[in-house]
Q: What sequence folds into this?
């Protein structure tokens, strides 16, 4: 089993990555929880809900599902889950289990962070993308004006990652997850990037996937441990996200997967980086890789002014000035202020390039 420990300001938690580990969740749960509330989605629950309940001995175990997809990460679902928690009489000794991808993890984590001012939760991720969202304690829901605008930093008690649950993922989910792995490689590990860029996603083996996940999680955990509340280097994990979040909000949540939007956002950040630092930073290689793996680059068709407005809601922005994570070289991210005029002209030429035949 691959195991990592993350030290936070409140406690340390373990990340376990293994095959079939979903049947052993009971081993990782303290036996004095007064009740357990499992939150999942309507695609994941039929596949894995029974498995994760194996060996859990409590009569007070409840579950509910949300519709799968980003559109569920909203205030209505949040309120519904809080209502269930109250109706089922959860208390401060209750545990929430988030079984699913990033949407379930972020939403269930935010419910846990705020129910009675905070109860324990564990993350049981079932997508590749969730290797990123389940680690680090960022929990949130979306507002229609901006992604993850209502949230907190609230670390889980454990992350239990069964790689066998990734076998059934549809192509767009594999693309979404690999975009975040590529992101981690770009900001922290040139060697990892060299392993990823020649890959054809359709032919990845289980062993490769396991290895990539471990490398990605390790990069993420190392950064989070050094800067839990994103005062400094954690901002680097936002590489590609300034444009991605704006695009997701502008297109409407769920129209593009988060990772696919991040892929477009990274490409844009590389375009600016190459221009500012006057060197090749793999823009062409990433573009080829994204095209070769069928990333939906044509979804980048939103109005530029609307995008800039949406980018101003990015959490790195200060005094209405947009900050983006760029690369000064591979593995060397930098946070840079950009004026509206600069962004406007970069976005215009980027849009032209993506729409060129
Ligand atoms: O964990 C982080 O920090 C990240 O920025 C990771 C991102 O990949 C992730 O999507 C995160 O939720 C975005 O955070 P936000 O603060 O920009 O909403």
A:
């Amino acid at each position: 089993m691959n195991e990592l420990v993350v030290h936070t300001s409140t406690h340390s938690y373990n990340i376990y990555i293994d095959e079939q580990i979903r049947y052993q969740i009971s081993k990782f749960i303290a036996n004095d929880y007064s009740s357990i509330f499992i939150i999942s989605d309507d695609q994941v629950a039929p596949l894995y809900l029974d498995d994760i309940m194996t060996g859990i001995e409590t009569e007070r175990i409840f579950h509910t599902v949300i519709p799968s997809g980003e559109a569920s990460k909203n205030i209505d679902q949040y309120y519904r889950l809080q209502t269930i928690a109250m109706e089922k009489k959860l208390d401060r000794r209750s545990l929430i289990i988030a079984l699913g991808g990033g949407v379930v993890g972020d939403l269930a984590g935010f419910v846990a962070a705020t129910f009675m001012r905070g109860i324990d939760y564990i993350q049981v991720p079932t997508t590749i993308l969730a290797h990123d969202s389940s680690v680090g304690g960022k929990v949130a829901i979306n507002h229609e004006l901006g992604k993850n605008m209502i949230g907190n930093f609230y670390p889980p008690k454990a992350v239990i990652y069964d790689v066998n649950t990734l076998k059934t993922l549809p192509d767009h989910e594999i693309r979404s997850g690999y975009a975040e792995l590529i992101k981690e490689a770009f900001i922290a590990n040139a060697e990892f990037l060299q392993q990823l860029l020649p890959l054809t996603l359709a032919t990845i083996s289980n062993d490769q996937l396991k290895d990539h996940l471990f490398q990605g999680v390790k990069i993420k955990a190392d950064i989070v441990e050094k800067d839990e509340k994103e005062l400094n280097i954690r901002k680097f994990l936002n590489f590609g996200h300034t444009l991605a979040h704006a695009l997701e909000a502008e297109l409407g949540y769920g129209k593009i997967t988060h990772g696919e939007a991040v892929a477009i956002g990274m490409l844009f950040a590389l375009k600016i980086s190459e221009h500012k630092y006057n060197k090749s930073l793999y823009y062409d290689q990433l573009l080829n890789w994204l095209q070769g793996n069928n990333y939906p680059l044509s979804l980048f068709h939103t109005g530029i002014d609307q995008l800039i407005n949406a980018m101003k809601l990015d959490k790195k922005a200060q005094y209405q000035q947009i900050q983006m994570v760029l690369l000064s070289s591979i593995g060397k991210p930098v946070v840079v202020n950009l004026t509206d005029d600069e962004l406007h002209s970069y976005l215009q030429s980027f849009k032209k390039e993506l729409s060129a035949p």
The mean pLDDT is 95. The longest strand covers residues 146-153. Residues 2-166 form a domain with the Rossmann fold fold (CATH 3.40.50.1970). Residues 132-133, 136, 138, 147-148, 180, 230, 234, 237-238, 241, 315 surround LNCXM5UN (CB under 6 Å).
